[in-house]
Amino acid sequence: MTLITGGEFDAYWKSQTGGGAGGESAAGDVERGVRRVIDDVRRRGDAAAREWTAQFDRASPERFEVSGDAMAAAFERLRTTNAELAAALEMARDNIRQFAVEQRKQFFDFEYEIAPGVIAGQRVIPAQKAAIYAPAGLFPLISSVLMGVVPALAAGVEEVFVASPPAHDGGGLPDWRILAAIRIAGGARAGDSRAANIRAANIRAFAIGGAQAIAAFAFGTETIPRADVIAGPGNKYVAAAKRLLFGEAGIDFVAGPTDVLVIAGPDANPDIIAADMIAQAEHDPDARARVLAPNADLAGRVMQAVEKRLAASMERAAKTARASLDAGGLIVTYTDENEAARIANIIAPEHLELQCGDEANERLLPRLKNYGALFIGEKAAEALGDYSAGTNHTLPTSGCARFTGGLSVRHFLKTVTTLRCAEGAGYAPVVKAAETIARAEGLAGHAESAKARLSR
Predict the structure, then answer these.
(1) Backbone angles phi, psi at 81, to 5 degrees
(2) Residues 6 or more apart from 145 whose CB is under 8 A from it?
(3) Gap between the Cα atoms of 253 and 226, Å rounded
């Protein structure tokens, strides 16, 4: 873990984000490999998708689409073997849905009279078909199913497709917990005696992962439907495929390794900060956990707390967390709140935690501009946002919070405009202005098209 001062931050950050030949070469290799997969799936459809799946996932399902019976069996298995997890997923689903429904209310149709006789408006229309990617590497991200499917349904998407790689021991099916989560996302409840027979309304599941999954849903194949929008997290190959296929389908955003930044006050609890750093670092050796501390004393106590927690952990993810923290863990000591806010806005973290005390947190709020999700106060653990509090955990990484927010109902909506015109005092001036601007641009046809309205 690296410890620097605020005065050293700019030079450090430039050295970390300036790129390098090795990183560019590795990224180029990934992109070239993904292009091969995309081009092959575009040309050969199911056959190509099946071959790439067999190569990368060491499993080749006879059919990509998962039957409703298989999903119902997975839900029943969860309901009977782990009722606590089923109940937790249901609570998370309900909270995510409540939040998504409130978000949906912020997008509404309207018409406004710009000038007498000139009425402009907007309509908000949901995408018809959305594909949600649910990763399943070392740890199947069952929560990502809820984070993608529930907002899509709340937005009003007519058909939702969930793609997840076939499990090595799953008989050609995705991890059974992923399938159970799909059923829960669609409304099934463990306490309902009819739950196993509930069809997850408008939701279909497919046993396919990686770049080939993104390509299949972008183009459509013989058995995999084309999606209007593709969303959800994934590894670097999935991210590269989403980047390359933007335009073939709507893409939520391209995510990289996860990260967290904690702004700590003088009285912050170093053990809580250490726990949050490890929670983020355990995702991936490339994950980044960072802290802004007001003094070297707190910085030292955070480092000690991290070491103590890692030494005491018997979890296999602790090894990953240590690798991440050794490679990119960072603590910066800041001189005042202005400097802390400036550094935070430069980093533009995926997750930003404020642990400065109530008054200081409120002072900082208006100065913080760039973050994927904000967690205000010690009790607002980032892990709650990851799972159960209702906000979405699919968030912009790698500084992308400078220009976008996280996954929400808006990614499944399109805002289109309308125009109505009638005789009125404002109509002729608008037509004349259009004619004038068109002639200035040399587009006589446009000018005549506008002028023809007045000649009638």
Answers:
(1) -105, -25
(2) 132, 134, 162, 164, 178, 181, 182, 185
(3) 18
222 is catalytic: no
What whole-number distance in Å separates Cα of residue 154 and Cα of residue 358?
33
Q: How many residues does the chain have?
A: 456
pLDDT tens digit sequence for 80-91:
999 999 999 999
CA R_g for the chain: 25
Mean pLDDT, to the nearest integer, of 9-19? 85
CATH number given to 57-251:
3.40.50.1980
Say how far apart CA 277 and CA 261 lie, in whole Å.
Answer: 8
Domain range summary for the chain, segments of one domain joined by +? 57-251, 257-405, 426-455
| pTM of the full structure | 0.90
Given the residues 248, 282, 283, 351, the one annotated as active site: 351
Q: What single string gives the DSSP state of each residue in 34-58?
A: HHHHHHHHHHHTHHHHHHHHHHHHS
| Catalytic residue (one of 248, 282, 350, 435) | 350
**Best CATH choice for the domain 257-405 from the list 3.40.50.1980, 3.40.640.10, 3.40.630.10, 3.60.20.10:** 3.40.50.1980
Backbone angles phi, psi at 19, to 5 degrees: 80, -175
Element (H, E) at 374: strand 373-376
Q: What pLDDT score was predicted for residue 415?
A: 95
Tell me the C-alpha distance between 262 and 271, whole Å: 13
Lowest model confidence (mean pLDDT) among 98-107, 133-142, 382-391, 440-449: 133-142
- 350 given a catalytic annotation: yes
pLDDT (tens digit per residue) in 412-445: 999 999 999 998 999 999 999 999 999 999 999 9
